[in-house]
């Protein structure tokens, strides 16, 4: 497994496994504490694992946490997703940068998203499983949602949204979220 910095988002990394393939399929390590530690992250900081299953076109996000934020490891374990990270850390050299990725069950690449960044994704295949490993227990009172179609962000979503939660459909713009944060 190798770790690669994401230039567009300061502190973000892609963890790419080295699969072993044969006639049965493949085997790969999807998490390696030593590799995580090698880029300055604490592998023991992750306290909760979750999984979402989506169908083609489902759009989830853009989500982040208020307060101390939430760092996460995201991996598409089955299918393919279009994944988006928006850096909202005012002290970051990549503040307001948007980075997009295609994550898939074929590659099993994991994306590390630092706390203070918004995250969202869209399922590109019929069934898509997305795994999350977060560094704080989830507290719904800290959930923040930003409009997926905010023109300021201009995210090039590959498909029209097939389905979204009510919270995501009614999300405020980035400008509104930042204004609330200042209050």
TrEMBL record:
Its EC number is 5.1.3.13. The keyword Endoplasmic reticulum does not apply. It catalyses: dTDP-4-dehydro-6-deoxy-alpha-D-glucose = dTDP-4-dehydro-beta-L-rhamnose. Pathway: Carbohydrate biosynthesis; dTDP-L-rhamnose biosynthesis. The keyword Isomerase applies. Residues 158-183 are annotated as: Disordered. Keywords: Isomerase. Gene3D superfamilies: Jelly Rolls. GO terms for molecular function: dTDP-4-dehydrorhamnose 3,5-epimerase activity. Belongs to the dTDP-4-dehydrorhamnose 3,5-epimerase family. Homodimer. Catalyzes the epimerization of the C3' and C5'positions of dTDP-6-deoxy-D-xylo-4-hexulose, forming dTDP-6-deoxy-L-lyxo-4-hexulose. This is dTDP-4-dehydrorhamnose 3,5-epimerase. It comes from Streptomyces phaeochromogenes.
């Amino acid at each position: 497994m190798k770790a690669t910095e994401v230039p567009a988002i300061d502190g973000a990394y892609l963890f790419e496994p080295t699969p072993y393939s044969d006639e049965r399929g493949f085997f790969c390590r999807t998490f390696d504490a030593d590799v995580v530690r090698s880029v300055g992250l604490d592998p023991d900081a992750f306290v909760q694992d979750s999984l979402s299953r989506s169908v083609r076109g489902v759009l989830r996000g853009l989500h982040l946490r208020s307060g101390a934020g939430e760092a996460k490891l995201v991996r598409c374990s089955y299918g393919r997703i279009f994944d988006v990270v928006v850096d909202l850390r005012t002290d970051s050299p990549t503040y307001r940068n948007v980075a997009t990725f295609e994550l898939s069950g074929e590659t099993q690449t994991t994306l590390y998203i630092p706390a203070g960044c918004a995250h969202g994704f869209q399922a590109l295949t019929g069934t898509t499983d997305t795994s999350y490993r977060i560094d704080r227990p989830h507290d719904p009172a800290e959930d923040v949602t930003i409009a997926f179609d905010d023109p300021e962000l201009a995210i090039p979503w590959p498909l029209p949204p097939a389905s979204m939660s009510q919270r995501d459909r009614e999300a405020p713009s980035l400008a509104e979220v930042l204004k609330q944060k200042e209050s």
